[in-house]
Amino acid sequence: MNHFIEALKLVSFSVHKEGYKFIIIFAIATAFIALFSSAAGLVGIVVTLWCVFFFRDPSRIIPIEEDILVSPADGIVTRIDYDVEAPEDLGYKDKKFNKISIFLNVFNVHVNRVPIGGKIIKTSYRPGKFLSAAAENASSQNERNSVVVKTKNKTEIIFTQVAGLVARRIVCDVKEEQEVNTGDRFGIIRFGSRTDVYLPENVEIKSLVGQTMIGGETIIAKFIQKKTK
What we know:
Elements: H1 2-11, H2 20-34, H3 38-54, E1 68-70, E2 75-85, E3 96-104, E4 111-113, E5 118-126, H4 138-141, E6 144-150, E7 156-163, E8 169-172, E9 179-180, E10 185-190, E11 193-199, E12 203-205, E13 212-213, E14 219-223
Antiparallel strand pairs: 1-14, 2-3, 2-13, 3-11, 4-10, 5-6, 5-9, 6-7, 7-11, 8-10, 12-14
């Protein structure tokens, strides 16, 4: 009986608010199609269930360790780039960052989470193309939404939602001057995407290319501790 309860916990999850309208549309379309073809209705049921699965919003256990950054999304680390520029619309001229790119496929959880707590000091939406989110130039050419958070030690961390080949809608729920905590939900990208995190030199990357990320749980970086004499 205990094993059955644990299994139910694994398949039970809440659904993000952005998903309800799609689930309802798919369900109504499925009911209509099923009136004319049971086979097509079965396909519609599968698609509707996939839609529910896509918009799932599971709870996460946020690490309590200080001076760490958690992954803003589920997915795979596809790139780690050093000494790169931040998105140009943010105004960080002549300043270099190290960047972690996480690719989300259509089966990953797409709810995004704040990598580290602090105050949101800037948000910037930029329209663009819909290249494959795994492409090298997706960060600069695709539709994106960037958020800058200033931590308690005054470090500015940038995290960016990047649309992909299938993704056509970026949702960001945080606003400038808002206080956030590490692991807080801050938005969602619909149907496949990518997230980038830009880190200054006083933050050490703790993840590897090919590593699987769990949004809000996996530690991706940590502040470098100053040596005391």
